[in-house]
Design brief:
Blueprint (H helix, E strand, L loop, with lengths): L2 E3 L25 E2 L1 H18 L5 E5 L5 E5 L1 E5 L3 E7 L13 E9 L6 E5 L2 E2 L1 E2 L15 H14 L1 H5 L3 E7 L3 H5 L4 H4 L1 E2 L1 E2 L7 E2 L5 H16 L4 E5 L2 H10 L8 E3 L4 H10 L4 E6 L1 H8 L14 H10 L4 H9 L3 H10 L3 H19 L5 E7 L5 E6 L5
Parallel strand pairs: 1-8, 8-11, 9-13, 15-16, 15-17, 17-18
Antiparallel strand pairs: 2-14, 3-4, 5-6, 6-7, 7-11, 10-12, 18-19
């Protein structure tokens, strides 16, 4: 899939705004990701090209395979182009993009032989730094939303594609540049707008007391069922990875702790769990090694010195160590070190630091295991606490 992007000037740096700053009612109502709304708008606009009219509602398949009906506004088509808007509802975790008008402009590409081209328009950020898993110079549309938008457009536009034409899809967000100033995007090298995100399509209120309570409850349930092991993961991909790595454990042992390390570990210690396994990718693994109680991106930034020291320890070239020290993401280090066949050693070094930090903060009878996995949810290395003795 080829991708283009309309460049926008860098946003002026502003003070980071935390999700917890605004007072609001806390709850656990889920919402939809910017990726899900983008896919809905793109599908509706495509249907407008097919039928000559943009529908007021559209059914969209989310990355988690759930089918959801979205309301569509501002529909318009002239037969060659069509536009549609899907307004984001973030549920009980409204962030900077809550209420955003995710806008899709879909254009017929005569003779393009079924090709679907995805572009970023105004209000969608431009990637300017490596380490995000996206092409530098391209739009900040994450890989899962890229596929999800394309998949929904392919279904909606089947008659056009079958006739030998292609479709160009441009996602834009009015006001996206202002929204981005309330996020870490500029620090991460995403300039001029927001990111199009979402690995499932569903937004869960990770920053709420409700989610923290659900983590505690899940450990309570495992203990009541007589489990003596618990596996804490930071999300869906790490959980699937852990389930493949530890097939002997029952499903109730697996708990998605999200960002709530302290709540998870305190509950495990209270129940005197014999074994605690943690599954994480490089960013969260680093934050666990830092000793953070909550690893949410809004709470505290990743410790670049810790990452650089781990890279130096495993023999990374000094110039790369300094690049890593200057980079804004742990992913940058992971990807560069993987190119040097140092991925296993690097993740092992971080895992050792995480084990020592967790042991110091949460003493108890449990033995610790850290499982590091990559961004596709494939295990890289598993480190047992007893290996450190």
């Amino acid at each position: 899939m080829s991708m283009g992007h309309a460049q926008t000037p860098p946003a002026a740096p502003v003070e980071k705004v935390r999700k917890g700053d605004a007072k609001r009612d806390r709850g656990n109502r889920t919402g939809f990701s910017t990726g899900a709304n983008s896919a809905a708008a793109a599908a509706a606009a495509t249907l407008g090209l097919v039928h000559g009219e943009v529908p007021p509602q559209v059914e969209c398949v989310l990355p988690n395979t759930q089918r959801v009906r979205f309301n569509i506004t501002e529909g318009w088509t002239d037969g060659q182009q069509a536009r549609a808007v899907s307004i984001k509802d973030a549920g009980d975790d409204p962030d900077a993009t809550n209420g955003a008008h995710l806008t899709a402009l879909v254009e017929r590409l005569p003779g393009a032989a079924g090709q679907i081209v995805l572009r970023g328009g105004p209000g969608v950020g431009t990637v300017t730094k490596a380490g995000l898993g996206l092409d530098v110079g391209g739009p900040a549309i994450n890989p899962v939303p890229q596929r999800n938008i394309t998949d929904n457009v392919r279904v909606a536009g089947a008659p056009i594609l079958a006739a030998g034409d292609g479709l160009a899809v441009t996602i834009s967000v009015p006001g996206g540049e202002e929204m981005a100033k309330k996020t870490l995007n500029a620090r991460l090298g995403i300039l001029g707008g927001i990111s199009i995100l979402g690995t499932t399509g569903i937004v869960r209120p990770y920053s709420t007391a409700a989610f923290r309570a659900s983590v505690v409850q899940a450990v309570d349930v495992a203990a009541r069922q007589g489990q003596t092991s618990v596996v804490f993961t930071t999300g869906g991909r790490t959980e699937k990875c852990a389930m493949r790595c530890f097939p002997e454990l029952e499903e109730s042992c697996f708990v998605q702790m999200g960002d709530f390390v302290k709540a998870a570990f305190q509950t495990a210690v209270k129940h005197r769990m014999e074994r605690v396994i943690v599954g994480a990718m490089v960013g969260k693994l680093t934050k666990i090694a830092q000793g953070l109680s909550v690893t949410h991106a809004w709470k505290e930034e990743v410790d670049r010195t810790l990452i650089a020291e781990a890279a130096a320890e495993i023999g990374a070239p000094p110039d790369l160590v300094e690049e890593i020290r200057a980079a804004e993401t742990a992913r940058f280090a992971a990807e560069r070190l993987a190119e040097l066949d140092l991925a296993v050693a690097f993740h092992r070094a971080l895992a050792v630091r995480a084990i020592r930090s967790l042991r110091a903060r949460y003493p108890g009878p449990h033995r610790l295991t850290i499982m590091a996995c990559n961004f596709e949810g494939v295990p890289i290395v598993t480190v047992e606490e007893h290996e450190l003795d």
